[in-house]
Please model this.
Amino acid sequence: MKAAGGKVLVIDLGGNHVKLLATGQRTPVKAPSGPGLTPKGMVKLVRKATRGWKFDRVSLGYPGMVWRGRPVAEPHNLGRGWVKFDFEKAFGRAVRIVNDAAMQALGSYKGGKMLFLGLGTGLGSALIDHGVLLPLELAHLPYRKATFEHYVGASALKRMGKKKWRRNVKRVVRELQRALEPDYVVLGGGNVKKLKKLPTGTRRGDNANAFHGGFRLWRKENAPGRMSLSGLAKKQGASKSVRRAGGRKNAGESGETRVSSEP
Model:
């Protein structure tokens, strides 16, 4: 797992754990997070856990809304202070930040139009449409009597039990397939292992894909806002309109990222 231009530290920041891996390291390191974790506390934790590691750049998978590489909303399951925090100053290195579900989606992508749903503490979501990464915030949209996350998040699993939770996951996946019409759905997150049978049109993801996504984020063609489709139009049979999108001057201004499906 190498990234162009130097060694990369990938931080997968979750509601229960912070998971870390750097270029040249074989085994990820995991440390506890939790509702009291602040960005300063996270940096201190990361520095301690990675003592002796060498890295030039940082990829951060953030459990909240990210716009143009910056957090714009505080995370639901961590402490406060993330939105205005200067991550590059704190680490002393260049930092790229994406939503944590988007980072795992990037590591899971194999072309076409893919919907990623992360079944973890909450419900993470992202869409990659023929090389265009679109982070989504589906968790707190109204659904039935509450929100999507209310029915498929970790609290729902604890509250409802596995049997009912599995039925709700199946229903939510079906609703989102109908709405977004992906070619396939990847189900990631720690709780995907609690599904006995995967819903139709889905495949199982792996939390390790977040690390793949973090390394991919530093490939030149995957820089936020870049126009290159990195050969995806040819490799995946994209339409002419998708190929032309690479030449628009204002493409990517919505905060989208164009990505390659290559490792």
